[in-house]
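ingest -> validate -> predict -> emit
validate: passed (alphabet ok, no gaps, 707 aa)
predict: started
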Amino acid sequence: MKKIYLLTLIIVIFSTVSFGQKDKDSETQTYRPMQVLKQAKIAHKSGDIFSAIDYYRIYDELKPDKPKVLSALGNLYLREKNYRQAKIYLLKSYKTAPKKNFLDLFNYARCLHILADYEEADKYFALFISETKRESDLRDYNRLAKDYIKGIAKITNIKDSALNVIINLLDTAVNKPHIEFSPIPYDKDKLIFASLPEKEIKFYDPDNDTLPTRKFYLAQRKGNNKWKNLGEWNTTINGHNINTGNGAFSDDKQRFYFSRCEKDFKHNIICKLFVSELKNNEWQEPIALPEIINTPMTSNTMPAVGISRKNTDILYFVSNREDGRGGYDIWFTYYDPRRETWKEPKNCGKRINTVLDEITPYYNIDTKTLYFSSEGHPGLGGFDIYKTFGEGKNFDEPINVGYPINSSFDDLYYILEDSRERGFFTSNRSGGYSLRHENCCDDIYEFIHRDFINIAVTGKVFGITDSLFFLSIQDEYKANLSLELDVLNKSDEIELLYDYPVDLYIINDNGKEYYIKTCLTTSGNYFFNLEQGKDYVISVKDVNKKDIRLPLTTKGIIRSDTIVMDAIMVSTFPAQSLIVKNIYYEFSKSELTNDAKNTIDNTIYKILQAYPNIIIEISSHTDSIDTDAFNLKLSQDRAQSVVDYLINNGIDKERLVAKGYGKSQPIAPNSNPDGSDNPEGRQKNRRTEFKILGQIDDDDELIYDDE
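emit:
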């Protein structure tokens, strides 16, 4: 008869958020080894890695050196980031069943790599390459091992070229023993971050207790690395009883994208992306992004936001959806305002994504740079932070951001403050606040560049009104039409332009131009922050979309400076409405007379043909006779009749807006001071005007180029 091992233990069940639970009476129960193994598998399948580790450890003591158990323990310890324990079981697993557990040899080498035992890591990566060269299903890992060896050879150079930065671990107002993640600079000296602010492992009954959840919190800098926790950031976004985190603002700070995560019926953690809009200074109830992004049965999380030429959001995010390159990849999509839909997401490509995980993207709009963390690109150890220039799927080869921001451990969630002189990241490097072991939990760190160079560019934009065209119309037709156009009193007056769009482009090493962002002039000036060692173009368009371009470079600049560019001169339209007389109607009717049509043909229609991109508002006004409601409807109908006539003559309806103002905007008195009728004033008020609202945006998006 086989000897049956008996075991006495206290039942411990850890939840997905690293909390534990023990039975209400802390009863001691007796289990046979197979019962222990069953409990281990149940915990493992449910994602309760800590309980699974505890049960597998007990089983291994009772039934030593079972290859599947050793492999499970090694990989669970690796998931827990307990690399010192992981390497013990991974190596034993491989040696016990070398032909079945090749990946454990690979992960053993990775543990050595993470623990900065580079010489031994090199040796075991080489062994893995040798042992798996004929294993076709491990070809990608074989290639990765070769990349890791190449990376190890570069580590000395990376450390010798260390960044001149100050790195501070944020204090306990922010960092707790559990994981802190997703730091987001907010206002001046404030930081949004996600956290489970518990100081120890607690025990909960998942059947009866409400488990605490991760939420967004707000902290404020109070001095040299001193912080004050201000509590929950926003209860609407945090929601109720759901894990919330991983956030990013749109460029205009009017939208906040983030993820919410929970277990599905298979115990897999499924995250979905949400967005909340800022209205009247209040964040609105979050809305889940559509299924084209939140693909069912996949996890979609960790948003980052860029900006397109059309001033719409480009959303980068992390997903394990099908057709990726392996594990979690970084994908992108953007919003199409014309169709009011999100585009089908596309993979960011093989320069970014590997067969392992790429996560925590952050996109810096000012420099057109994507930062992300990868365990597939060879670096100093675990997840390293990389940066790459480009957008969509058109990116340069990623570059390691350098030591000591990157360590041999997991370095994640890199993000810059607006000045780009300082920023934040998370890491499980030694020296943080730990829960179960030295490297269990990610903390938030701040970095400050000691030798950062601030470079900016500014310049003025002047407008010269293109009034000669309007005056020529007036001179040509006033003789036989008695036509009058009220234009600017001073023809071709030069003036500083306010709220005028100025575009900034950056040019990569291959000469390709990328749009960065648009600045609206303030007091006639534009202002952009620049990056050292780059080529740029300032671009301004006139009323006919003629592109005026000023090239500049920051190459060779070695100290902080603001570049002042030559003034830009553009042709513009008159800012005020233009009054077109001789557009007549029958009394109290809205149908155009033949004379009115003739006037339109020779004024508004001619202008729309000469300037094919402009969008105009046709407005109609009445005098004060009759009621407000009657005049408002009559003026709207009259404005619409002009719009309909122009459309029937081939003008695109998207360029025309009809607006009736009734008697609400008189330009002359309808009555004299003594109360008598003022026919001349009423005649002036019965008018048709048009004004330039803007221009049709027909630029094509380029971010989907398959290059």
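Confidence is low (pLDDT under 50) at residues 1-28, 476-491, 702-707.
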